[in-house]
Specification:
about 325 residues, mainly alpha, 11 helices
């Protein structure tokens, strides 16, 4: 009976919002319980738009890590749409369209960003040497991408159901619970990703203490020593932790409900949603893998020799050329 009465009050409040403006109703009656900050949301919109354009340009310049670029561009597009929704809500926090636009887009977007992170781990394993990993390099995306896809489907389906229910002045809790399930899978997947990354790092360091440089793939020594590759490893760490913190926060926020206290706290949203995600994408802009891994595709090796009809006898060997990436490396580079 209490749940029924609560839904009845929420239904009446939803209908009242359709008639509200900033001049006629208190801000506590809005969807947010506050007026979204225009400076903060405009800044996030500008930064995500910049990041989106940067990923497009970097993808075209590098022509590698296509899967990574698609994932990051998709995530940034949703982030841009989400902050457009929050700016719409600044103008009218009682409008349902802006609220639903931001809650669905900003909830789903990091699932694409997480997919971009998962696609880089196999290339890192190849760079240090697959012998240091407990599982094959290409097994990482085969494990994490399906999990991320299930998470994305649940979040999208839940968001659609919640949006439809809200438009019809019905209880959106079913759709909200499905979104929470998708976010929970995303948190577990990210946690497993962090554990496997840490395990790979520990095992690599342990083998290096025992074997020295022989524990590492000699073909990629120059790449491992480059500042850009080392910067990418730091960027990947920062991005992974940022998206993980954000995902844990969103599970807690949505678990509290659309009328809960967490969703009404704008400061928490700005710090744990906006700052965490924009930090993740900007560090990956600064150290885009398609550019940071370039030296890994320029490894000089001897090719089969050919005889030349020019010059003196015995001097017709063709000069050493550069080897193209192996099949697995080429597959990883397009991920």
């Amino acid at each position: 009976m209490d749940a029924l009465n609560l839904f009845s009050r929420q239904n009446d409040r939803s209908r009242l919002r359709d008639l509200c403006t900033l001049e006629t109703c208190p801000i506590e009656d809005s969807y947010f319980d506050y007026r979204p900050s225009l400076p903060a949301n405009a800044l996030f919109l500008a930064l995500f738009s910049f990041s989106l354009c940067s990923f497009l340009v970097q993808g075209l310049l590098s022509r590698r890590f296509l899967g990574f670029t698609i994932a990051m561009v998709s995530g940034c597009v949703l982030e841009v749409l989400g902050y457009v929704g929050r700016i719409m809500s600044y103008n009218n926090p009682f409008n349902e369209n802006g609220f639903l636009m931001q809650i669905i887009c900003l909830t789903i977007a990091p699932a694409f960003l997480a997919a971009g992170l998962y696609l880089t781990l196999s290339r890192i394993v190849t760079t240090f040497g697959p012998e240091n990993s407990r599982i094959a390099a290409l097994s990482y995306p085969r494990i994490f991408i399906p999990c991320d896809f299930v998470s994305l489907l649940l979040q999208a389906a839940g968001g659609g159901l919640a949006s439809t229910a809200s438009h019809q002045n019905k209880d959106p809790s079913v759709g909200n619970n499905i979104m929470i399930a998708g976010l929970a899978i995303q948190v577990v997947t990210l946690l497993l990703f962090i554990i496997l990354c840490a395990d790979f790092a520990v095992k690599t360091l342990r083998r290096m203490r025992q074997m020295g440089q022989a524990a590492l793939d000699p073909k990629h020594a120059k790449l491992r020593a480059s500042w850009s590759f080392q910067g990418f490893l730091c960027a990947l760490t920062i991005a992974t932790i940022g998206i993980f913190i954000r995902s844990v926060y969103r599970v807690a926020e949505l678990s509290d409900g659309w009328e809960g206290e967490l969703i009404k706290n704008q400061t928490l949203f700005i710090v744990l949603e906006g700052v965490m995600v924009i930090l993740a994408v900007l560090v990956l802009n600064a150290f885009h893998p398609g550019l940071c891994f370039r030296e890994g595709y320029d490894v000089p090796v001897a090719k089969k020799t050919k005889m030349s009809w020019r010059g003196k006898k015995g001097q017709g060997l063709v000069q050493e050329e550069k080897e193209s990436p192996s099949r697995d490396e080429a597959r990883n580079s397009n991920a």
